Amino acid sequence: MSEAQLKQVVFPVAGLGSRFLPVTKSIPKEMLPIIDKPLIQFAVEEAIQAGAEEIIFVTSHTKTAIEDYFSKNSELETRLRDSNKSELIQTIYPDYLKNIKFSFVRQNEPNGLGHAILQAKNLITEDFFGIVLADDLILSDVGCLKQLKDIHSKTNSSVLGVFSASDSELKNYGVIDATQENDILKLNSIIEKPSINEAPSNLAVFGRYILSKSIFNILEETKPGLNGEIQLTDAIRSSLSNDSVFAFEFQGRRFDCGSKEGYVSAIVDRASHLENFREIVKK
Ligand code: G1P
I want to staple 194 with a disulfide (CB 3.0 to 4.6 A). Which of 167, 173, 198, 222 is the partner? Predict the structure, then answer.
């Protein structure tokens, strides 16, 4: 098995974050901190662990905080150095960011995940690219996107991360119909946010994808689906007539930080794994 490359990863970050108002009035939801580190940094680190060399943010005009966050801040670095706090420089601009290219493309109207991904079309030069939805935080020894990339190396096909959802959760996700092939699932179909009666299984797609760039031509032809939006799920289903798509149940702890419950759980989980906070969590 030759190791595949995953050089480009797309981060759709143009959402309004209305579930987290008022804080998201001026702070993108992806910048919400899990103690001291924003969600987007966990996600970018995960992409870099999978081999990403270019991070492409699909953003809106209100999200300049993300652009600022991943830029070098020479003034702050000088001030830290002058006040004998040089050790903090590594935290604000870690070495692993130095060779990463950050690109930004605007999504001018919110029109679904498929529409957001389509905005990155002209920047994708590789045959396959990753997608990370940063409000799904996955904590695991081997990063979740790297786990997907290992499956992609075996199959040379698109791969979706899935988890086993409860019946009541299915209406919030893309849900797959798949056949088990060894330790991998091969998709037969996928449906966006089904009712419990329509759901073909309990395997739901969360925020990690590796897709063939042929998805862009399909997205351009994809008609508005659920809620009148261009759904990535619909394009993936159309792609099945020509290409194989696989799914994989990842190993790790997943927190849906798009919900307040998931966000609080993520903070408690991280705190309980950090020495300074363990006692506080116990109390
Ligand atoms: C989107 C996708 C859905 C996927 C989900 C994962 O929905 O459309 O298929 O399961 O992300 O978080 P959204 O959460 O944007 O409504």
Answer: 198
